[in-house]
Amino acid sequence: MKIQPLIIGDLTARIPVMQGGMGVGISLSGLAGAVAASGGIGIISTAQIGYRDADFDKDPIGCNLKAVKTEMDKARQIAKGGIVGVNIMVATRQYEAYVRAAVEAGVDLIVSGAGLPVDLPKYTVGSGAKLVPIVSSLKSVQVIIKYWMKKYERLPDAVVIEGPLAGGHLGFSKEQAEHPEELHYDEEVKKILQYVEETEEAYCARIPVIMAGGIYTRKDMEHYLEMGISGVQMATRFVTTYECDADEAYKQCYINACKKDIVIVQSPVGMPGRAIRNSFMEKAKAGKIPHGQCHSCISTCNPADTPYCITDALVNAATGRIEDALLFCGANAWRAEKMEHVKDIMEEFGPED
Q1: How far apart are CA 34 and CA 12, in angstroms?
Q2: Which CA distances in Å does 138 have to 27, 72, 79, 190, 274?
Q3: Tens of pLDDT, residues 14-40
């Protein structure tokens, strides 16, 4: 089939692929810049983005806010004029400060999920940043669009539908994530598409819909394009690239994983997530893992009760200490067989010459 560009307002991605944000430290300037330079949309995750700063333990939020601009500037140099944005979780403590830091850094777009970003327009007034909420149900997209229009007279510039095959924290119950086939999720996708189309007609607007969760090959993308989706968001496929910002040991976990190794876990911040089974999971099941001071990450985490520190576990993943790490991944991580270059992946998904 003919592959069309992904157009979000005045931004045009030659290849309709947006790279998903992966924290902590998995999608920073290296990966995002490479995807943008190759014709897609690169996304930096702001989740504990400043973890490498020497002052991170003392002032995590300050280090994170400073790193938003640092990583964006680096990505711009790599992107060569390509599109670069950020992913900011609504559940992030001091969410507003992160959004304002992203605007100040000059991001092209802000992708926001892990909660409903109902007040995102308030924090971006006067900026040119495109606003892209992540939804998992018809109800959630209805809430966002109706609220934004009523309070801010603003529509999303695009919408990401994140399905049950996605990696990391999920907008589904543990049972739903373990048996995604029972959801018949394509039907929900069709309902969301229909509602967005009705919104477009009502307001004479254009709101591209982007599908995320389980897209690993061009065939996966074409399935959704045939349904009327404008583009796809991929994350897992980009982990095993030379340009990915994670340590090589983390990437190798994907390559070594079998299908049975991909499991649903209960995150200490109260949400189910998808990850690769390892010895850390067994230790976490056996009892509470001691941790140091709070790193002010997710608003739903209670440091006194948490079985382990998710920041510590994800920093360990990014830095290659995999036996003490939570190895977040998408449902198709087991399909990784080798290291790749971002440009080669993008060519697979791009228009045929």
Answers
A1: 16
A2: 28, 32, 34, 9, 23
A3: 999 999 999 899 999 999 999 999 999
Is the four-CA dihedral 300, 245, 342, 76 of positive or negative sign?
A: positive
Neighbours of 45 (CB within 10 A): 26
321 closest CA partner among 10, 9, 25:
25
How many whole angstroms separate alpha carbon 267 and alpha carbon 187? Answer: 28
Q: Which single residue is written with the structure tokens 């950020």?
A: 86
Cα separation, 250 vs 51, in Å, equals 17
Convert the pLDDT of each residue in 259-298 to its tens digit.
Answer: 999 999 877 777 788 999 998 888 877 666 666 666 656 6
Give 74's DSSP letter. Answer: H
* 189, 224 Cβ separation under 8 angstroms: yes
User: Can you state the angle between helices 185-203 and 138-152, rounded to 10 degrees?
Assistant: 20
For every residue of 153-168, DSSP letters joined together read ----S-EEEE-TT-SE
Query: Which two structure tokens, joined as six digits, stand for 213?
Result: 């969760």
CA pair distance 310, 227, nearest whole angstrom: 37
Alpha-carbon distances of 209 from 143, 192, 196, 229, rounded to whole Å: 16, 9, 8, 6
200 CB-side CA count, 13 A: 13
